[in-house]
């Protein structure tokens, strides 16, 4: 099924989005309250275990090794549970903040729409498309921030919490079991190296410095290598035409669009192979991403608020181009778009 996407003809239902956001805010507020109660209980339990551990430390020469080990294991378990629960609470609070900002943006958009009713009636769909674009942009930004927040919390932030625990364990074991302390330090070193690589990957996703220094094509090839390593998906990039530097804003737009479409192939399409074709013409730049995933119905995907696809379409059209999806369930997907090279 091939569908050429046109600009939105009607206004998005802002009030429906606002009602849904208010409902989500109520739910997440309740979850925060429950999590705060749980954190309080875990804090009290952790304090009691820490007191017991201090008593054990004062009697290391008299207590059996197994009892000492059990005390340290209990302390580690209590601290880990507390760290995890605090991390979940921070995540919920961050999501609540994002929802509150989105709610404020929707309320402003709703007010603008209500206040500009007479103007909108005379100008028709011309006034509706910008409002839809504003809503999509805000929603996409918040979605991306939430994704990064979850990734950082589940990755580096959690790892740093574990580093603290491992360091404390190693310090306490120095006077008790130097071999085990050495093992803990080696584990800490390995964990730190893995976390360092994850942080580098996050930085690359946020804003690859290569894009400014070397341009679009080298950056995409480097990103494809990292993507292949992280997902085990066979990604190939073919470039035709005059390989050259483009306007900075155009390089960013193309990179972000390809990044989004590769992510869709992995997350939603469950593809094992993706082919990226880039034609750098003198007047027009064409991009095609073809995967062997499970495919989808283009109309349904766009009706279900596929913000990434909508924003790529919007940006391509703003740059004098077009956007097209060729896909159907069970038959993979091809997403292609073109922009003017002289925008």
What does this structure look like?
The chain is an alpha+beta fold. The chain folds into two domains: 2-206, no CATH class; 209-340, 2-Layer Sandwich (Heat Shock Protein 90). 69% of the residues lie in helices and 12% in strands. It has helices spanning 14-57, 65-115, 117-123, 128-173, 178-206, 209-213, 216-231, 248-267, 298-303, 307-318, and strands at 2-4, 234-241, 273-280, 284-291, 322-327, 333-340. Helix 1 (14-57) runs antiparallel to helix 2, helix 2 runs antiparallel to helix 4 (128-173) and helix 8 (248-267) runs antiparallel to helix 10. It is globular and about 80 Å long.
Question: In a few lines, what is going on in this structure?
Answer:
The protein is an alpha+beta fold. 69% of the residues lie in helices and 12% in strands. The N terminus is likely disordered.
């Amino acid at each position: 099924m091939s569908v050429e996407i046109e600009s939105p003809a009607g206004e998005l239902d802002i009030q429906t989005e606002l009602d849904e956001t208010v409902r989500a805010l109520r739910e997440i507020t309740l979850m925060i309250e429950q999590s705060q109660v749980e954190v309080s209980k875990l804090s009290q339990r952790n304090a009691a275990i820490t007191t017991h551990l201090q008593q054990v430390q004062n009697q290391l020469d008299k207590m059996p090794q197994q009892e000492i080990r059990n005390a340290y294991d209990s302390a580690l378990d209590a601290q880990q549970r507390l760290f995890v629960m605090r991390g979940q609470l921070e995540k919920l609070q961050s999501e609540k903040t994002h929802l509150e900002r989105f709610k404020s943006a929707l309320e402003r958009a709703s007010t603008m729409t209500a206040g500009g009713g007479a103007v909108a009636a005379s100008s028709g769909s011309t006034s509706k498309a910008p409002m839809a674009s504003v809503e999509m942009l805000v929603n996409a930004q918040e979605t991306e921030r939430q994704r990064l927040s979850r990734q950082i919390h589940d990755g580096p932030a959690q790892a740093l919490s574990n580093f603290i625990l491992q360091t404390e364990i190693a310090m306490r074991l120095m006077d008790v079991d130097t071999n085990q302390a050495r093992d803990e330090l080696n584990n800490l070193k390995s964990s730190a190296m893995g976390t360092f690589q994850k942080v580098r990957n996050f930085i690359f996703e946020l804003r690859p410095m290569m894009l400014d220094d070397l341009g679009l094509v080298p950056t995409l090839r480097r990103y494809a290598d990292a993507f292949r390593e992280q997902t085990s998906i066979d990604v190939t990039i073919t470039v035709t035409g005059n390989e050259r530097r483009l306007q900075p804003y155009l390089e960013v737009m193309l990179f972000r669009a390809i990044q989004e479409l590769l992510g869709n192939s992995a997350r939603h399409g469950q593809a094992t192979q993706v082919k990226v074709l880039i034609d750098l013409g003198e007047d027009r730049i064409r991009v095609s991403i073809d995967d062997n995933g499970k495919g989808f119905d283009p109309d349904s995907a766009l009706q279900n608020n596929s913000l990434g696809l909508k924003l790529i379409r919007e940006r391509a059209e703003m740059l004098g181009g077009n956007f097209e999806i060729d896909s159907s369930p069970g038959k993979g997907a091809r997403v292609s778009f073109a922009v003017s090279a002289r925008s």
